[in-house]
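subagent[fold] <- orchestrator: predict structure for attached chain, return tokens only, no commentary.
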Amino acid sequence: MHNIKYINGYENQYVLYSGITLDNQYAVFTVSRNYDEDFSFESGFQAGILKYDFLNETTEYFAYEPQVYLESKTSAQNSIYFAYITWVNQLAEVSIHQLDCRDMSARKVYSLQLEDILAGDVKSGLWAIQLFGISDRYLVVGIPKLPYPAKGAGSRFTHHLLIDIDQQTQTIIPDRLGDNDRLIYMDSIEVVNPNHGAQLVIRTSNTSSEIAFQSLAVIEFNTFIDLVHTQQPIDESYIITQTDPLNGFIGLSLSDPGMVGAYKHCFPDHRSEIVLYDVDTKQRTEIKLRNRFEKVFIEYPEVLGLKKTDSTHDLYDTSNGQRLFTTYMERTLRFANSSYALTQKFSTGHVLLHDIRTKSILAEYIGNCTSFHYIPDQKLLILVP
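subagent[fold] -> orchestrator:
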């Protein structure tokens, strides 16, 4: 039986999974404004938050005020953070709010005051503030350089703050990460919750130097908080993999709550490499694949790889080299596991959901803003046409 459900009514908006699933019943999504409208910093980009009850197939919606400019890149346990910016001369106030996704209520939780020489101009670097929600109590905020530097001119951030909402305090996070990386290059923080406590997965991306590199670190949540409060950096022991000039990350997979998966290229050998890290046992496993894949889908223990030819996209089981699925080049493979493949022709918005096992089409529709969320524990695919 196919476990596929649809959320309708948002055909002209971007509806993206927030990272929050509650009580094995609710999935929470962020919703953009209508993409046919004129977007600007003054009008705001985001429209609100949608909570979907996938057992009863009902929805609940929280609408932002028109001027929401900033929304947290990472959501926390039950919370999504968002912020408004107002100026008085060259003093900007960043008003941070917390949305409780359980009861869909919001409250102001913190305020930052920052000097801004552009004073509200649309070119102000404050539009680039990073918000990472790591719990219902703690928030990591990336403070951009002012004026905001051009791309490729080094890091665009000066430092990161750890904000404690309960204590109403802010602490500068030590910048060093391992022996040769820095958190000012932080690209993402994800929270995973294995059986023995929450862990933070921190990924950097430094493309400003001649030798671009990335790091992927996994650190226990409370350990991270203690290191910040005692002003100690994250040392090399927490880094599970790094790039070098011959390797580059393609992506990160967190489909299993207790397993962190990363995949990268090894350019000279024309092959890909998988790194799996069990956050409970601290066991790290490297899998050197026989081929180079454009993209890898990890649903532990399955690892599927995408290869492209001049005319097709081919999906393989990397453990035995078996080809599982093929689609033509004009269709992009957006999601796959051992049961389903979701493809889209972007020129027309034509979407197909394929059953890999029976080679049949399960669904077909037109959706320029199509998004989806797969919940492995429920074997549930939620589609937003």
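orchestrator: received. Logging for downstream: Residues 221-229 form the longest helix (9 residues). The chain has one helix and 33 strands.
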